[in-house]
């Protein structure tokens, strides 16, 4: 069976500090990978998605970046956090050529 | 541009009552997904609707899809407190992306 992990689960960072969130998927190969952000009480905003190693599509211009160094690893980064970066960050995966996405447990980021 | 709209955005309902959540989308799609999000938690898959006229039921929830009307409904029967959550519908834009609705926050009170 497939499992998706995210860490850390919670994070409190000061404005201007760097960020690195990690997502890994087990039990599947060549998945599509996604990063979403959810502000408090709001819907999902797609940030990045990847269909393969080193292939990143950015949906929203901002101070965040994503990388996919390995087939089942997806990393979300920032060099300098803003207050507006606070939110619930969700990683998801889907099988190549299909639509249904499966979500990780999420990382709750608070920028102070 | 594909738009996915849900209504209502917020629903407060009494236990035992019935209600329907609507999901409308703007372009052709032959499939639709429903997800549930408990407060402070991630999204979990609820229903996968893969064709026109598809109907899926689990417990007090029943989802249906009308691809000609570009409409899906999520019907709640005899609501209980455990159903309190936010419900999202999602429509594929292509094989790489899902477009999510705004979500419907359901609160069931005694």
The largest sheet of chain A, given as strand count, sense and whether it forms a barrel, is:
7 strands, mixed
The shape of chain A, in one word, is globular
Number of helices of chain A: 0
Low-confidence stretches of chain A: none
- Secondary-structure-based class of chain B equals mainly beta
Helical content class of chain A = under 10%
Portion of residues in beta strands of chain B equals over 45%
Instruction: Output mean pLDDT of chain B.
Output: 95
- Return the average pLDDT of chain A rounded to an integer: 94
Task: Say what oligomer this is.
Answer: heterodimer
Greatest contact between two chains: A-B, 23 and 22 residues
Major β-sheet of chain B, in short? Answer: 6 strands, mixed
Structural features, described:
The complex is a heterodimer of chains A (112) and B (110). Chain A has 112 residues and is an all-beta fold. Chain A has no helices and eleven strands. In chain A, strands 2, 4, 5, 6, 9, 10 and 11 form a seven-stranded mixed sheet that branches. Chain A has a four-stranded antiparallel sheet with strand order 1-3-8-7, with no helix packed on it. In chain A, strand 7 and strand 8 (73-78) form a beta hairpin. Chain A is globular and about 40 Å long. Chain B is 0% helix and 56% strand. Chain B has strands at residues 4-7, 10-14, 19-25, 32-37, 43-49, 55-58, 61-66, 71-76, 85-92, 98-100, 104-109. Chain B is globular. Chain B has 110 residues and is an all-beta fold. The model of chain B has no long low-confidence stretch (mean pLDDT 95). In chain B, strands 2, 4, 5, 9, 10 and 11 form a six-stranded mixed sheet that branches. Chain B has a five-stranded antiparallel sheet with strand order 1-3-8-7-6, with no helix packed on it. Chains A and B meet through strand 5 and strand 10 of A and strand 5 and strand 9 of B.
